[in-house]
Amino acid sequence: YLALRRSGAVDAFLVVCGNHFAFTQDRPTPQPLDPAMLAFPGLQPLVDALVARGHRDTAEAYLQLEGMHGLVRSPDGSAKPWTIDAALHPWLEGTQLLRPGDVKIQPGASAVQWRGAEWLVVESSLDAEGLSQLFSERARL
Fold this sequence. Notes:
- Helix content is 17%, strand content 30%.
- The protein contains 3 helices and 8 strands, in the order βββααβββββα.
- Strand 6 and strand 7 form a beta hairpin.
- The chain is elongated and about 50 Å long.
């Protein structure tokens, strides 16, 4: 298993458990704090109101939350590695979250470089060699 976290302006996690992965990334614009839901009863009415007022860019930013699941390797080899099989954005289904070689393991295996950022290893059962193997073309799970 492996849990990576990218912190910064937009928080994100990549979790791998066996052959399954889950990826989530927060929206770049935090939803307004309204715990009693007095202004808007949820995200959809907020987005609808923003679009009606001509604030489409802000509305789109609220909808940029990412979440997806997939398999590191398909059991029968029919799909490419790291293929997404379920996502909040359905057009991502069938695409690859990452490609072998995209992730660079840092010395000591306490962090990796991916998507132009440092991702901290929060929890892992893998050593540096195991991490390299996971993100290689021939991962053994």
